[in-house]
């Protein structure tokens, strides 16, 4: 049985990925070790065989696959020789080259899920270094498929962009929702009702969008052609150049993701 060690696996993203994988049997409890600085995190109680530790060296010694899920600023504290192991990183801002140099690893997979993983609704692009095997890639795909949709991509430049688009994406939707709630409140709607309305709007609208045969652009055009209240709103948003601040936000987030990383085109 492949032994899987997850450094920082009790954190926000780590648990969002691991709990669905455990629930689906993609990972067996007895094959999983999770580390944290505190040594014990809640959430794994349904799988009592999952081991928890503060000791990353012991975790690594027992593991065939090591996943890194700590915040980038905490990575320097983790010095391990992971040569001969598959290393999976879900960390933003840490490149394949950096991971290879730090951990003497050659088989490395970088993936960029988002926190909708906890609802099994992540979009998770990933890429692999040239030395990874088919079995390595299959392991990673099974792991990430438990918490959403996966997409293999070719370059770290793309991964940095997806870090902004879908990694950070839930926060960008939240800012749009917050802007709608704020406007509703200024128009006299009680905040609690506005919040309830906008949460349901996002659920309903995004469910329609996800299942629609039309592209988002076509959906917008359908409403523009309808020439009613929605069109009036869409035209005012276009006149205020709504695309530009969205593009600026994505560009800034992608630039931060790329800062300090070196592109490695894996073909
Ligand atoms: N959250 C998000 O939306 C996304 C995050 N990511 C990436 O995922 C990674 C993790 O982020 P996230 O889960 O949000 O962060 P969290 O802070 O929620 O989790 C990080 C975990 O790392 C643990 N940790 C820190 N230092 C060590 C150490 N030396 N040894 C063992 N465990 C350690 C912490 O343990 P303790 O609590 O005990 O200190 C904590 O549980 C980041 O690199 C981020 O870039 C990627 C996509 C989306
Ligand atoms: O904000 C961050 O840095 C992490 C990476 C992508 C989403 N959250």
UniProtKB/TrEMBL annotation:
In which residues is NADPH bound?
Answer: 56
Annotated Gene Ontology cellular components are:
cytoplasm
Q: Which InterPro entries match?
A: 6-PGluconate_DH-like_C_sf, NAD(P)-bd_dom_sf, P5C_Rdtase_cat_N, P5CR_dimer, Pyrroline-COOH_reductase
Question: Which Gene3D superfamilies does the protein's record reference?
Answer: NAD(P)-binding Rossmann-like Domain (3.40.50.720), ProC C-terminal domain-like (1.10.3730.10)
* GO process terms (BP): L-proline biosynthetic process
The Pyrroline-5-carboxylate reductase dimerisation domain extends over 156-258
Reaction(s) catalysed (UniProt annotation) = L-proline + NADP(+) = (S)-1-pyrroline-5-carboxylate + NADPH + 2 H(+); L-proline + NAD(+) = (S)-1-pyrroline-5-carboxylate + NADH + 2 H(+)
Sites where the protein binds NADP(+): 7-13, 36
Q: Which residues form the Pyrroline-5-carboxylate reductase catalytic N-terminal domain?
A: 4-92
Q: Name one Pfam family in it.
A: F420_oxidored
Q: Which EC number(s) does UniProt give?
A: 1.5.1.2
Keyword annotations for this protein, in alphabetical order, are: Amino-acid biosynthesis, Cytoplasm, NADP, Oxidoreductase, Proline biosynthesis
GO MF annotations in UniProt: pyrroline-5-carboxylate reductase activity
Principal location: cytoplasm
Compartments where located: Cytoplasm
Q: To which pathway does this protein belong?
A: Amino-acid biosynthesis; L-proline biosynthesis; L-proline from L-glutamate 5-semialdehyde: step 1/1
Q: What class of enzyme is it?
A: oxidoreductase
Q: Which family does it belong to?
A: Belongs to the pyrroline-5-carboxylate reductase family.
Q: What does this protein do?
A: Catalyzes the reduction of 1-pyrroline-5-carboxylate (PCA) to L-proline.
Do you know which HAMAP family this protein is assigned to? P5C_reductase (MF_01925)
Protein's UniProt name:
Pyrroline-5-carboxylate reductase
């Amino acid at each position: 049985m492949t032994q899987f060690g997850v450094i920082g696996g009790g954190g926000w993203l780590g648990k969002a990925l691991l709990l669905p994988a455990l629930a689906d049997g993609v990972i067996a409890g007895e094959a999983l070790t999770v580390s944290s600085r505190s040594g014990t995190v809640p959430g794994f109680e349904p799988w009592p065989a999952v081991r928890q530790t503060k000791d990353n060296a012991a975790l690594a010694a027992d593991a065939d696959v090591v996943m890194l899920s700590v915040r980038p600023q905490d990575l320097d504290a983790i010095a391990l020789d992971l040569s001969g192991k598959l290393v999976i990183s879900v960390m933003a801002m840490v490149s394949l080259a950096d991971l290879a140099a730090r951990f003497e690893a050659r088989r490395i997979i970088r993936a960029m899920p988002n926190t909708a993983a906890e609802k099994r609704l992540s979009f998770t692009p990933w890429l692999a270094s040239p030395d990874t095997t088919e079995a390595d890639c299959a392991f990673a795909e099974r792991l990430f498929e438990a918490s959403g949709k996966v997409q293999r991509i070719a370059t770290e430049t793309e991964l940095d962009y997806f870090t902004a688009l879908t990694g950070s994406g839930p926060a960008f939707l939240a800012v749009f929702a917050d802007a709608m709630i704020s406007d509703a409140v200024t128009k006299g709607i009680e905040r609690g009702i506005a919040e309830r309305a906008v949460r349901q709007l996002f659920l309903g609208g995004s469910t329609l969008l996800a299942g629609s045969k039309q592209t988002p652009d076509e959906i917008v055009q359908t409403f523009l052609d309808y020439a009613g209240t929605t069109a009036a709103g869409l035209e005012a948003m276009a006149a205020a150049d709504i695309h530009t601040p969205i593009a600026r936000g994505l560009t800034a987030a992608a630039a931060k993701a790329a800062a300090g990383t070196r592109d490695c085109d894996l073909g």
